Amino acid sequence: MKEYEVRCIKCGARFAKEEVVYTCRHCGGLLEIKYDYSEIDAERVVKGAVRGVEGKASEGKARRGVWRFRELLPFAEETAPVTINEGETPLYRCERLAEFVGLETGELWVKHEGLNPSGSFKDRGMTVGVTKAVELGVRGVACASTGNTSASLAIFAARAGLPCYVLLPRGKVALGKVAQAVIHGARVFSLRGNFDDALRVVRALCEEERLYLLNSVNPYRLEGQKTLAFEVAEAFGWQAPDRVVLPVGNAGNISAIFKGFVELKRLGITDSVPKMTGIQAEGAKPVVRAFKEGRAEIVPEEKPETIASAIRIGDPVNAAKALQAIRDSDGVAEAVTDEEITEAQVALARLEGIGVEPASAASVAGLKKLVAEGEGEIEEGEIEKGERVVCVTTGHLLKDPERVIKICEVPTEVDAEVDAVRRQLLKGV
Ligand SMILES: *Cc1c(COP(=O)(O)O)cnc(C)c1O
Ligand SMILES: [Zn+2]
Questions:
Q1: What CATH code is assigned to 91-117+221-407?
Q2: Residues, CB within 5 angstroms of ligand 2 (ion)
Q3: In the chain, where are the structural domains located?
C-alpha cells in the first residue's frame, strides 16, 4: 500500500484514510492528499507513463489515461479502477489561434479536455473519486453541479452500479449535460436556487444520509484531475510549459493541475512549475477580485451571472487553494466579458477546428486580454510574448448547443432544386 495522508491545508490536522471527511473537523479548512515523496520512485512515474507496461486491462491493471500515473494516485497497486478510459486527451499546437491572441512569437497549445469520454475534464476526477467510493463501501454518491460534474458522476456511478443523486440549479444547466445525467440513471433534482445553494444543500445531505460527496471539495477528485499536468509535461519531454491558462469556477481544477506540476518538480522529474493563470467571467469573479485586492480569501458573490454556465459560481469552494496556486506560481487571475468569451469560442472553432462550450473559451479570451495588457512594458504577472502557453479547454461544444444556435447564423432554407441552392450558394461570393 502506498503511503499517504489526508491533511488539512490550514491547520495541518491529519485524518485516517478510511474516514469519510471532506473538510477539516477542527478548522473547516480544505483537505489535501499528501504522499511520502521519499518513497516514490521518479523513474517509475516516468516509465509507468508508458502505456500498458503493467498488465492487461482485463486484469484490472489497465494503465491508460489517468491510471498510467498510479505511482502518484492514492491506491494500492491491485485496486481495480472504475474507468471509462478517461484522460490522454489531445494537445494541439495552434498557430492561427496564437495570432488571434497576439502571441505570434511564442507557442500556443490547446489541451482539449472536451474530448474526455463524457465531454469534460470532470472524468479525470470522477474515475479516482468513484474508485475511492467503491473502496470505502459507500451506499451512494451525490453532487451539486452546473452540469458537467453530474454528467460525469452519473456515468461512473452507472459503471460502478452505485445509486447517484444530483442537484442542479433550475433552468441554469446546458441541455446536453442534463441529458447525460438523466439517461445514465441519476436521480436528478432541479433546485430552486443557484449552484452555491445546491452545493450547500448536498453537503448537508451527504453528512446526514451517509452519501459520498463528489464535488471538487473531495480531495480524491483533485488527485485524478492533477494528471493533466503529467500529460502536458510528458508531451514536452518532461518539461513544464511557461504558463497554463484555464477557466475557474469552483476552483478545483486549477488547484489540482498546480499540485500535479508541484509534485513533478518535487520528484525532480521537471525543473519548474508553470504560471497558473485563472480566468473567470466578469459576472462571476470572486477569485479575480481577491487576487487583485491581495486577499487570501474571497468575498462570495450573491448573484453570479454569465453565459458560461460551467463557471457561474459565486462562492468557489476551492478558492483558498486556487489563490495559493496562482500566487505561488507567479501566475495571475483575470476576468473576461461574455462577448469576449463568445469571440474566443468562435475563433477556436473556426481557426483551429476545436469545438468547446463557452466556459472553456474563457481560457483563450483571458489569454488574449492578458497579452494585450502586456504590450510594451511587462509588469509582474503579465504575459511575455515568447512564452510557451497551454490553454485548457475544459468542455465539449455539444454540451451547450442552444448557445451555438443563438450566436451563429441559422441554416438557410431553400427549395430542393439545384438552381435554387446555387443562387444562394453564390450570393456574396
Ligand atoms: C467544471 C468546469 C469548469 C470549472 O472548473 P472548476 O474546477 O470548478 O474551477 C470549467 N469549465 C467546464 C467546462 C467545467 O465543466
Ligand atoms: Zn484544519
A1: 3.40.50.1100
A2: 8, 10-11, 13, 24, 26-27, 29
A3: 91-117+221-407
